[in-house]
Amino acid sequence: MVATCLHLAGFVCSFIGWIGVVVATATNDWVVTCGYTITTCRKMDELGSKGLWADCVMATGLYHCKPLVDILILPGYVQACRALMIAASVLGLPAIFLLITVLPCIRMGHEPGAAKYRRSQLGGILIILLGKVG
């Protein structure tokens, strides 16, 4: 019973972590900028934000984003971060599928326990790589 609960808790935590990586990759609020103090900017509605995909400005109720489409102009750290976040997002999908198949409540034919154990190890390694890359 304890092993089943640990498997389910591990799967839920890894799935939530993978969803968090995907959401963090898509968001444009990586860096919030302001010419004044943050409280003054919130009162004046002059906040700017930068992400991996767009630079956004919020001023007097308008929210305008300029997409970052020219890859050669971007700094190297933004390009590297884009590549690592995309790699983490793509790496998480097979890891989640592998971890779904090794849950204790799922049986796939008459497979031996060793095959399920190897899939569990591979899924765990992929999740650890996802954490290191993302």
Automatic annotation (TrEMBL):
Keywords tagged on the record: Cell junction, Cell membrane, Membrane, Phosphoprotein, Signal, Tight junction, Transmembrane, Transmembrane helix
Transmembrane parts of this sequence: 83-106
PROSITE patterns: CLAUDIN
Membrane topology: Multi-pass membrane protein
Signal sequence annotation: 1-24
Cell compartments where the protein resides: Cell junction, Tight junction; Cell membrane
One of the record's GO cellular component terms: plasma membrane
Main location: other
Molecular function terms from GO: structural molecule activity
Residues in coiled coil: none
Subunit structure: Interacts with tetraspanin-3/TSPAN3. Interacts with OCLN.
Free-text function comment from the UniProt entry: Plays a major role in tight junction-specific obliteration of the intercellular space, through calcium-independent cell-adhesion activity. Claudins function as major constituents of the tight junction complexes that regulate the permeability of epithelia.
Family to which the UniProt record says this protein belongs: Belongs to the claudin family.
PANTHER family linked: CLAUDIN
The protein's name in its UniProt record: Claudin
Organism name: Crypturellus undulatus
Source taxonomy: Eukaryota, Metazoa, Chordata, Craniata, Vertebrata
Recorded name of the encoding gene: Cldn11
